[in-house]
Amino acid sequence: MRKYLKKLKGYYFILPSLLGFAFFFVLPFIGGIKYSFSMSGFNNTFVGLKNYKEIFESEAFRLALKNTGVFMGIAVPLIIMFSFIISLIIHEIKAPKLIKLFIILPMIIPSATVAGFFRKIFGASGFDIIDSDYAMLVVILIFIWRNTGYNLIIYLAGLSQINKEVIEAAEIDGASYLQKLWHVIIPLCIPTTVFASIVTIINSFKVFKDIYILQGSYPNPKIYMLQHYMNNKFRDLQYEKLTSAAYVFALIIFTFAFLVFMMDKNYSRKVGDS
C-alpha cells in the first residue's frame, strides 16, 4: 500500500494544474458542444448541423478559413526551416549568449509594440503594404520574427542531445558535412522537429493579436483570419456560430498535429527498416 501511495506522490504535485486545466479548458470545451447544435446561445432548441452548414455558406467564414490555411501552409514550414538553420549555425560556431539573446528577445516584446513597429515600416507612407494584396507577407514576417527564438531554444536543446560519437563515426567513415547533416543530424532531430512543429502550429494562431492591433476587427480581407470571425461572432452574441467555428478551428489544429505525427511515424519506420 505504501509503495502504491509513493507512486502517486508525483501526481499530487500536478493535481492543481490538472484541475485548473479541466475546469477552465476541458469542461467549457465539452459544454460548448450544445451551443453549436442549438438555435442560439439563449435558445437551446436542437437544430442539428444547421449552424455548421450556415458558417460554411458564409463568405466571411470561407475567407477566414482560406486565409488561415494559407498562412499556416506557408509560415509553419518556413519558420521550422529557418529556425533549424539558425540553430545549426549557432550550435556549430558556438555563438556567444548575446547573439542568442537578440534572437530570443522578440518573444518578450508586447504585441502593441510589435504592431506599431511593423505599421511604421510597412504602412507609414507611400505604398502601404499592410493595406495591399501583399499584407499576408507582412503577417508571415511578423510571425517568423517573433517566434524564431522559441524554436531556436527547442532546436538547440535537441542538437545538444545528439551523441557526438555518432558524428565522429561518420567523420571516420569519410562523410562530408552535407552527408553528416542529411544522414545523421537531420534524422536525429526528427523528434525535435515534430515537437517544434506542433508548438509552432499552436503559436501560429496567436498572430491574431498582432493583426487585431494593426487593423482591428475587420482588417484587410487578405489577412482576415478565423479568430477574427470568432471574435466578431462573440461580440454579436452569436454563440452558436462562435462555437461551431471554434470546433472547426480545433479540428484544423488536430488535423495538422496528426499529419505531423504520421509523417514522423512513417519516417521512423523507414529508418528502422533500413
Structural description of this entry:
There is one protein chain. The protein is an all-alpha fold and 274 residues long. It is built from 13 helices and two strands, in the order H-H-E-E-H-H-H-H-H-H-H-H-H-H-H. Strands 1-2 form a two-stranded antiparallel ribbon. A hairpin with a 2-residue loop joins strand 1 (38-40) and strand 2. Helix 3 (50-57) crosses helix 13 and helix 7 (135-160) packs antiparallel against helix 10 (190-204). The longest helix is centred in the first third of the chain and has 35 residues, at 59-93. The chain is globular and about 70 Å long. The mean pLDDT is 83.
Which regions are unreliable across 5 or more consecutive residues at pLDDT < 50?
A: none
| CATH fold-level assignment of the largest domain | MetI-like fold
The number of distinct helices, counting runs of at least 4 residues, comes to: 13
Strand content: under 5%
CATH architecture of the largest domain: Orthogonal Bundle
Integer tally of domains: 2
- Report the average pLDDT across residues: 83
Shape call: globular
**CATH top level label of the largest domain:** Mainly Alpha
Largest sheet: 2 strands, antiparallel
How far apart are the termini? 46 Å
What is the CATH superfamily of the largest domain?
Answer: MetI-like
Helix content: over 70%
Strand order of the largest sheet: 1-2
Order of helices and strands: HHEEHHHHHHHHHHH
Rounded Rg: 23 Å
